[in-house]
Amino acid sequence: MLFFLAHVALATTWSVDVGGGGDFASIQQAMGVAATGDVIEVEPGLYAESVDFLGKDVQLVAVAGPALTVIDAMGDADRAVVFRNGESAGASLVGFTIHNGVGGAGVEIDGASPVLEGLVLGDLGDPLNGFGLGSVGAALWIAGGHAVVRDCTFERNYGQYGAAIAIQNGVLTVENAVFIANEVGSYGGAIWALSSTLTIRDSRFIDNSALYAGGDISASETDLSWLGSTSIGARTDWIGGGSLDLTDSVASIAGASFSAAFGPSGACLLGERTDLDLLDVLFDGCVGGSGAAVQLQGLGAGTGPIVDVRRVVFAGDSDAPTSAMSISNYSDLSIADSTFDGNLGGLIIDGSDLVGNLQIADSLFSDSLGTAVFVSSMNQVEVSRSTFRRNGGQALYVNAYGDVDVSDSAFCGNDGSFGAAVSMSGWTQDTHWNRNVFRENHGPGGTLEIVGYDSVSAELTHNDFVGNTAAGGAPIIRFERLDLMFTLNMLFDNGDAPIVSVENVDLGDVANFDNNLWYGNLGGALLGATFGPGNLLIEDPGVGRSWDGNCPGSDLVPSCASPLVADGIGAFPGPEQCPKPSSGPPETKKAGTGGRGCSTAGSPSAWLSGGSLSWVAGVLRRPRDRSRSPAQSRY
Q1: Which helix (H) or strand (E) is 28 found in, with range?
Q2: Shortest CA distance to 147 belongs to which of 216, 84, 69?
Q3: Which of 204, 537, 542, 582 is spaced 20 to 30 Å from 319 by Cα?
């Protein structure tokens, strides 16, 4: 049997000791002798030199780490360490502190793909250097290539563009890095990127700042992935986003948080003509100008960028003059499973030159001092399974060109300061409001206002209007210039204003009011329309209500034998969601938003606050019980 043995060149490990105890006293001397695949181990000390890897895939390692091992170019070279000859991922620089190229510059990667690991790059660059050497990427400059930066610290670096890192036409992955107090006089306090691919993973950005834009990152024509990373205290003073400033880019941000940022436009994030995907992100305490947390601008006509927001929280952005999130000229917007809580304003969307589409689902808009959601000049608008509660301004304002559909949502305790708590107008084609709850809202213009132009058709079915009030004699619900269908709704215990007002219903339009339940409303029923067949008119039972603005706390829970359920009136479940008599012991079924449900407990007549109801000649009636206290009368 023959054996063929291949000769394999074994890698050599070289030692460097500035004190003279190694193979070499100089790092560059060792680099000149080493071959690709070799390892150079550097003992503790100050190495007053610059290092060029000379195109060799060598591992250069400080054995005692950056606290004890320093490369200081002493201002004699343009960069302290350079990779300029096509080095690959086999070349690595590990465990050093880097100081003082010309203008205070650190490391340069030009057309190479090395790994930088465990480095400390601090106090590099010169705040008075203007646009000289080191003003772009003072700590690390990358031109081309595919570099990896891992477990590195960038602290107190200065420049004009990207004090910590500047990259152009390259690919960079940053993992588990820390960026602290880096500062520039132009763009990108920590990182500046142009025409590149940038991945930031499990990293921290603290107190970075830029004069113009992007306290943490300024990027143009770049694919950015920000994954599992945090930003605290980023700042921009003049123009753009406090933390991230993105132009003509694509950004994916997931598992991240941004807090205590400041910026004139988008304190945490400003995106211009940028596709954006947000997933599991927290924006907390962002303070700035337009769009306190996030501002997106898709300038110009044509096809706009796309925004996808999922499981995102906007909280505590209350010092901003407008909103937590402001979006203009975007073509497709999707917001799902997200929370806007305690902001001065919530969400502002302006379609302007574009005909865009908006979807909001399974989201909460709560305790905004102003309007929670403001939508203007969009094409299609769809809101589903969402809750709007205790907002100081309008809960929802929509001005749209196409269809508007709102379903399975709850509006509770909102105060439409300058109009109705919920308002819709514009050249909408069709609007559908189905299975929604309107409870304990108050506004000068009432609770719900829909104003149409041209041929607008509005359909409202299976909605609850409970405990709403209005000021100055305004109606609780107002319709104007519409083809209208208003059926199978429940209107219970609303305030001393007229409940529904229909105005300017032109010849040929239809005001259709069929099969609704009117119960305990103090201000009467209709203005400008007549009842259709099958409406249930109930005497005022004198039932009190709790003004807590909390949707679940004010729910009416009917028995499954209640006429509300049997006839499918209001937003309660229909008969198909209740058990049949033979299905077993009583149980409770829940459905919909705001805790709406269907209880099988109690007798068929005990469906409101323990009282009794009966059918008399097709009309629901409930006897008064004046012995009940106000507390006992709450639903």
Answers
A1: helix 27-33
A2: 84
A3: 204
Measure the CA–CA gap between 521 and 531, rounded to whole angstroms.
Answer: 15
Rounded Cα gap, residues 610 and 87, in angstroms: 80
Query: Nearest-CA neighbor of 448 among 427, 472, 422, 482?
Result: 422
Query: 610: which DSSP letter?
Result: T
Bridge partner list, 114: none
List of residues 6+ apart from 146 with CB closer than 8 A: 89, 113, 170, 171, 172
- Give per-residue pLDDT as tens, 292-307: 688 888 765 445 678 8
Q: Which of 212, 168, 161 minimizes the C-alpha distance to 190?
A: 161
Residue type, position 149, single letter: V
Q: What is the pTM of this model?
A: 0.84
- What count of other Cβ atoms lies within 10 Å of the Cβ of residue 284? 18
Question: What's the token pair of residue 402?
Answer: 């196409």
Calpha distance 117→105 (Å, rounded): 18
Tens-digit pLDDT profile for residues 251-299: 999 999 999 898 888 888 888 889 999 999 999 888 776 656 888 887 6
Rg from Cα positions in the chain = 33
80 and 50 Cβ atoms separated by less than 8 Å: yes
Sign of torsion over alpha carbons 62, 67, 68, 74 = positive
Based on the number of CB atoms within 10 Å of its own CB, is 170 exposed (0-12), middle (13-18) or buried (19 or more)?
buried
